[in-house]
Design brief:
The chain is α+β, with helices and mostly antiparallel strands and about 130 residues long. The chain contains five helices and five strands. The protein has helices at about 5-15, 25-35, 40-55, 100-105, 125-130, and strands at about 60, 70, 80, 90, 115-120. The strands form two sheets. It has a three-stranded mixed sheet, with no helix packed on it. Helix 1 (about 5-15) packs across helix 3 (about 40-55) and helix 2 crosses helix 3 (about 40-55). The longest helix has 13 residues, at about 40-55.
Length: about 130
């Protein structure tokens, strides 16, 4: 699907391309609103959906967080979600194509891919926890 050019959509994409922290729609909205004061949260959601549907960004849904996060890095990679502060961090892992094959061994359908995320405590939260236990 070809999207017509939109300054607001371009600003949303540009903002995401500068971030490594996987912001929510609300964070995107608060930033883009500085440049486009009349933009609505609905417009931000609609443009994020269009960008994700067109493969220009990733929509990351982590059930435990209850809110989508967005990532301009569309290359295959995995994520870590901090159980304490809810930060989403890219993990540098080698690709694991064998996972699809392994999962398909005892499955009657067709596996076309996978999304894996890891969870635990990020470095900052781990350091805070160790300081409170000392």
């Amino acid at each position: 699907m070809i999207m017509k050019y939109s300054r607001q959509r371009a600003a949303i994409l540009s903002f995401l391309q500068t971030r490594k922290d996987h912001p929510t729609a609300e964070v995107v909205y608060s930033h883009v609103k500085e440049e486009y004061p009349n933009i609505s949260l609905g417009t931000v959601y609609r443009n994020l959906t269009q960008l994700a549907d067109n493969g220009m960004i990733l929509r990351l849904s982590f059930g435990e967080l209850g809110v989508d996060h967005f990532d301009a890095d569309t290359t295959p990679h995995h994520h870590f979600v901090c159980s304490a502060c809810s930060s989403v961090i890219d993990l540098q892992l080698e690709e694991m194509p064998f996972i699809d094959e392994e999962a398909g061994k005892n499955f009657d359908g067709m596996i076309q891919g996978h999304n894996i995320y890891f969870h635990g405590l990020c470095k900052c939260c781990l350091e805070k926890k160790s300081q409170t236990t000392e």
